[in-house]
Design goal:
The protein has eleven helices and twelve strands. It is α/β, with parallel strands linked by helices. The chain folds into two domains: 2-171, Flavodoxin domain (Rossmann fold); 183-263, Alpha-Beta Plaits (2-Layer Sandwich), CATH 3.30.70.20. The strands form four sheets. It has a six-stranded parallel sheet, with helices on both faces. A two-stranded parallel sheet has the order 3-5. A two-stranded antiparallel sheet has the order 9-12. It binds flavin mononucleotide (FMN).
Length: 264
Amino acid sequence: MKILYFTATGNSLHIAKELGGELLSIPRMDKQGIYEFSDDKIGIVFPLHAWGVPSYLVDYLKKVTFHCDYLFAVTTYGVYSGAVAKHLTDIGKEGGYTFDYINRIMMVDNYLPTFDMEKEKAKEPKKKIEEQLAAVKSDIEASKKWILKENFIQKATFNYMAKREGRPFNEKRLKVHVYAEPIDNYLVLNDNCTGCGVCASVCPVDNITVDKENKNISLSNKCFMCFACIQNCPSNAIHIKGEVNGNRFRNSHIKLSEIVQANS
Ligand SMILES: Cc1cc2nc3c(=O)[nH]c(=O)nc-3n(C[C@H](O)[C@H](O)[C@H](O)COP(=O)(O)O)c2cc1C
């Protein structure tokens, strides 16, 4: 079994590791130009963004070819999973593949612009993550065929947004809804920056250049708002203008070095 995964703060990597098999980081595969995969079972594990698949993954998934008997996807999310199964199914149709199984696991919500990470972490026990994981794992081991059901309102909202934006809204670079421009224009670096370069290493799209001498960073225009740079900064030096507070999150099972390894 192969599992392709993307993670910004470790939730999806924790799930991918627990599901087992050979783990393949999507940013690494993308940077190496690898788009074809063969195995008996292949899975994708990723964080949900804006009720669907993050724009960066949409682009990647539209390029891939899968040769397998069983294709599954598991998304990790915080509160509301919108129309992610519909979105994935549509992406598969465009890419020429069909998912046998799509499910979700509710975890800590890492959406920094509106949530206090400490409050989100405090909700973790109620989410019973290990129980959700055990159920999904046993489904996949049994090659269960099942697609997450979404209701009319979930799909209609997704379709409405797609129509309004000209294509599924999360296939564009996401904007923080309360801001008028892409997130790059709202990032602030404070004096804590040591120029260590971790932000650049955890950025899946190589959007960050670090000036180690002057302890400064500059961004190009590829950010799709995963917040890996902000959440994983060892000196808590990167902030979003208007953020709730400076609290940060990384999944307790995952080390910073694993995220660096996955995304650099
Ligand atoms: C830009 C962005 C958008 C998000 N949108 C949603 C959402 O629509 N619904 C939701 O429940 N969680 C949402 N989340 C939360 C993440 O899906 C969740 O915390 C995920 O488990 C993070 O996985 P990771 O640690 O592997 O990056 C969003 C997070 C980010 C960064």
